[in-house]
Specification:
Blueprint lengths: L4 E5 L5 E8 L3 E7 L2 E7 L8 E7 L3 E2 L3 H8 L11 E12 L2 E10 L2 E16 L5 E12 L18 E15 L2
Antiparallel strand pairs: 1-4, 1-11, 2-3, 2-11, 3-6, 4-5, 5-7, 7-8, 8-9, 9-10, 10-11
Length: 177
């Protein structure tokens, strides 16, 4: 089978996680439950693939309803006004056995260039004779660079929410016939 063509994200076999420091001493992990994406390539090894990805901000889940509601509020994502985060690739280049993914990330009304590391898991054919491709995407972004500037300081002077957000995204794509 050929890898060339259009691939769509398989949400049943994908996940979007993030981690952020809380009070500088511990880490909060969250996920987004609703997202969509596509990959189009003219290369067998996916080099220079065009990747589009979006996620529904209201699908944020940190296992704590009050915190999730605060994150959806105007203090953070302002989900009512900006319901989606979007990413569009500008480059997908081989780096050894893996890839560097460059593109424009839009959170709220701020678009910035980001570079992410991508580990290629390979391709396989499933029980339904559908060709699948798997990737693990990781990287870090500054939340304040995207206008997520809310913070608090404790009486002892500790910052409540860290600036650096670690991303861990596992995606599986299904090749379109």
């Amino acid at each position: 089978m050929s890898n060339i063509g259009k691939w769509v994200l398989d949400p049943m076999h994908s996940e979007v996680q993030f981690k952020v420091k809380h009070l500088v001493i511990s880490t909060v992990t969250g996920t987004f439950k609703v997202f969509d994406g596509s990959l189009t390539t003219e290369s067998e090894d996916f080099t220079n693939a065009a990747i589009d990805f979006s996620l529904d901000v209201t699908s944020i889940d940190t296992n704590q309803t009050d915190r999730d509601n605060h994150l959806k509020s105007a203090d953070f994502f302002d989900a009512e006004k900006y319901p989606a985060m979007k990413f569009t690739s500008t480059a997908f280049t081989k780096s050894g056995d893996d890839y560097k993914l460059e593109g424009h990330l839009t959170i709220k009304d701020v678009t910035k260039p980001v570079t992410l590391d991508v580990e290629f898991g390979g391709t396989a054919t499933d029980f339904y004779n559908q060709e699948k491709a798997g990737f693990e995407v990781s990287g870090k972004i500054s939340r304040t660079a995207f206008g997520l500037t809310w913070n608090g300081v404790t009486e002892a002077g500790k910052i409540v929410v860290g600036d650096e957000i670690k991303l861990a995204i596992n995606v599986q794509f299904t090749k379109q016939a």
